Amino acid sequence: MQETKYRRLVELNQRLREDLDRPRVRVSEASTSLIRYCKNTRDFLVPSVWGPVDKRDDPYAPSGGGCGGCTCIIM
Q1: How far apart are CA 9 and CA 2, in angstroms?
Q2: What is the rounded (10 degree) CA torsion for 2, 6, 8, 9?
Q3: How far apart are alpha carbons 6 and 10 in whole angstroms?
């Protein structure tokens, strides 16, 4: 019984050491990175912020291809 408890403690200790060794990023650095990404990455779903999107640049615009140019509707 004592060996089992000791083994579990050793395994827990090892997992905690691995957690401590994991690289960390400061919250301020992560926040700055996220803000920079949001300011520099255009979101086509928010035209009120980024302005109108040209059809050829819009990845969400319906394409003319697909099933031979037809419009497929699934109901």
Answers
A1: 11
A2: 140
A3: 6
Residue written as token pair 């060794």: 21
Q: Identify the weakest region by mean pLDDT among 1-5, 27-31, 59-63.
A: 59-63
Q: Which bin fits 74, alpha (ψ -120 to 50), beta or left (φ > 0)?
A: beta
* Spatial distance between the Cα atoms of 28 and 30, rounded to a whole number of angstroms: 5
**What value does the mean pLDDT take over residues 45-56?**
80
Q: How far apart are CA 12 and CA 43, in angstroms?
A: 44
3-class state of residue 55 by DSSP: coil
Q: Calculate the alpha carbon distances from 75 to 13, 30, 40 in Å.
A: 55, 43, 38
pTM: 0.48
